[in-house]
């Protein structure tokens, strides 16, 4: 019997992606931005991501049995757009295949796709499911149950109650931009929360608080297409609430740090709302496992609060909880409908395109850079020594990560013992100096550095945790102003090369962690190919050396390992 291939896609307005399943098991997931080099791939269909997934599997479009889409645009006026006809979808996803008979299409509601991306991949038979994002077709928050291979949505909150848009609007108010939600979260640690955030927890969930004159007309929401079309109306309705407490006006020329109390207040409001949702979900669904997805799940401070709350014995967030992950969720829903299958347990994030040693050497030679290939042990020992003497290393090995966190496949690495590592990396990446960087630490030594509970999200750097007071002087570069860090626990079985590097660093220094931030410059997506890595290395002179597969690339022959 031939294999059955399901291609999942996100064709929303940003973070388009493709995921390929073979008989229900994940083969690959590629985010369009990584291939096109346009951050967030705004307005860009995932044609190149689709082609990359098929190429890795060695199949052509004609061998795809079903295309599953992580939206059901048929529910809203946008669905009448001719782009979503059979021929429109063929041209969008397979632009070079004019004679292709389009595979069967399965439209999966957006929040069902989000829920499935987490519930099917968490390796649990049952789970409570929480989806919090900007907007689906008509909803922004959903709670549900996963059991018997099915996702059941129990309750939804409409788009005008969007916690995702609440946080986006606050980031814009603080002068950090629509995509500045991560910056706002980092800024919050510098401030003190005050009463008055325009969101409050209520029994059974939460509500956004608006003055009567600032309500969002329901008919206005209903008449709009999804996502960015909703956002201006929701954001406009929230701005009077932002102005009701310090600071009273949107930021223009002031330093961002002046808005730290604002950020802290907004963050606290989000945490209280999500805790209330989780409490209601635990009351409704008798299971110890919480599966969390949606763009708001990228708020690692909030996820850390959920983990420490003890409401659930286990909190699972997939490595790609954003809209890029609905390609996976939609594919899983469709594959499940085709018959029984065993979905992939996702305990690592390495499902992207590979960087091989051969490709690395070719890219270095093309750029005229010296390079030398090393064996695994020699490579780990040499790079650990370079990090220990204060050098910044670009590290691109194996298959790329999925999601917005670099996890030791496309990373910039540095010494966590030196606070100057933070400053240097922020300079390299064109980031504000108050923004933190994170540690990758050996899983078996994590509790030497972190106190309290670590759960599944730490595999993917998706939950903040408290650095032990006695460890804060050991790893000052990755300890945020509030004593927190966003750790990645590195497991030997899922990334042995990265684990070996950190183990060598531990043997040299006694510290079982390195600084890890994403390998990209300001405005760029994370590097994907060897050519991307070499291009970034040549533009950023502050990066001291580069590792591509098993090859060390330097700027001069005298810097090569012996």
From TrEMBL:
The keyword Transferase applies. Keywords: Transferase. Residues 385-555 form the Carbamoyltransferase C-terminal domain. It holds the Pfam family Carbam_trans_C. Signal peptide: none annotated. InterPro entries: ATPase_NBD, Carbam_trans_C, Carbam_trans_C_sf, Carbtransf_dom, NodU/CmcH_Carbamoyltrnsfr. GO terms for molecular function: transferase activity. Residues 6-69, 100-332 form the Carbamoyltransferase domain. Belongs to the NodU/CmcH family. This is Carbamoyltransferase. The lineage of its organism: Bacteria, Bacillati, Actinomycetota, Actinomycetes, Micromonosporales.
């Amino acid at each position: 019997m031939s294999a059955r291939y399901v291609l999942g896609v996100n064709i929303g307005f940003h973070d388009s992606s493709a995921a390929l399943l073979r008989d229900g098991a994940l083969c690959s997931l590629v985010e369009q931005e990584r291939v096109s080099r346009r951050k967030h791939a705004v307005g860009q269909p995932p044609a190149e991501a689709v082609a990359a997934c098929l190429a890795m599997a060695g199949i052509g479009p004609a061998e795809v049995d079903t295309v599953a889409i992580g939206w059901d645009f048929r529910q809203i006026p946008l669905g009448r757009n001719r782009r979503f006809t059979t021929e429109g979808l063929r041209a969008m996803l397979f632009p070079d295949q004019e004679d292709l008979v389009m595979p069967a299409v399965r439209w999966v509601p957006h929040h069902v796709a989000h829920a499935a991306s987490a519930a099917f991949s968490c390796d649990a038979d049952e789970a409570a499911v929480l989806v919090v994002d900007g907007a689906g077709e008509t909803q922004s928050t959903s709670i549900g149950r996963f059991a018997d291979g099915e996702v059941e949505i129990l309750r939804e909150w409409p788009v005008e109650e969007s916690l995702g848009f609440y946080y986006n609007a606050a980031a814009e108010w603080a002068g950090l931009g629509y995509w500045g939600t991560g910056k706002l979260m980092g800024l919050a640690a510098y401030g003190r929360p005050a009463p008055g955030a325009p969101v409050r927890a209520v029994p059974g969930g939460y509500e956004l608080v608006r003055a009567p004159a600032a309500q969002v007309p329901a008919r206005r929401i209903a008449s709009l297409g999804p996502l960015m079309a909703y956002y201006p109306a929701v954001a406009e309705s929230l701005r009077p609430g932002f102005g009701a407490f310090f600071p009273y006006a949107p930021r223009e020329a002031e330093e961002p740090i002046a808005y730290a109390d604002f950020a802290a207040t907004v963050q606290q409001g989000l945490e209280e709302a999500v805790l209330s949702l989780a409490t209601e979900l635990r009351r409704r669904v008798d299971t110890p496992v919480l599966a969390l997805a949606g763009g708001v799940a990228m708020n690692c401070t909030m996820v850390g609060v959920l983990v420490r709350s003890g409401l659930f014995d286990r909190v699972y967030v997939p490595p790609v909880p954003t809209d890029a992950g609905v390609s996976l969720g939609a594919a899983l829903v469709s594959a499940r409908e085709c018959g029984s299958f065993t979905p992939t347990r996702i305990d690592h994030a390495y499902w992207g395109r590979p960087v091989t040693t051969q490709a690395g050497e070719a890219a270095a030679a093309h750029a005229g850079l010296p390079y030398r290939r090393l064996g695994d042990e020699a490579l780990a020992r040499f790079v650990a020594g370079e990090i220990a003497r204060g050098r910044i290393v670009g590290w691109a090995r194996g298959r790329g990560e999925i999601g917005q966190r670099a996890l030791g496949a496309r990373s910039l690495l540095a010494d966590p013992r030196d606070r100057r590592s933070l400053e240097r990396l922020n300079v390299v990446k064109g980031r504000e100096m108050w923004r933190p960087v994170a540690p990758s630490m050996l899983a078996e030594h994590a509790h030497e550095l972190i106190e309290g509970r670590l759960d599944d999200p730490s595999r993917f750097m998706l939950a903040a945790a408290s650095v032990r007071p006695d460890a804060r002087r050991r790893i000052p570069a990755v300890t945020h102003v509030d004593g927190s860090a966003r750790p990645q626990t590195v497991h030997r079985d899922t990334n042995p090369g990265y684990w070996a590097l950190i183990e060598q660093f531990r043997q040299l220094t006694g510290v079982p962690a390195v600084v890890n931030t994403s390998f990209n410059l300001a405005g760029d997506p994370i590097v994907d190919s060897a050519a991307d890595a070499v291009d970034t290395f040549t533009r950023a002179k502050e990066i001291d050396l580069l590792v591509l597969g098993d090859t060390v690339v330097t700027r001069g022959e005298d810097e090569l390992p012996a």
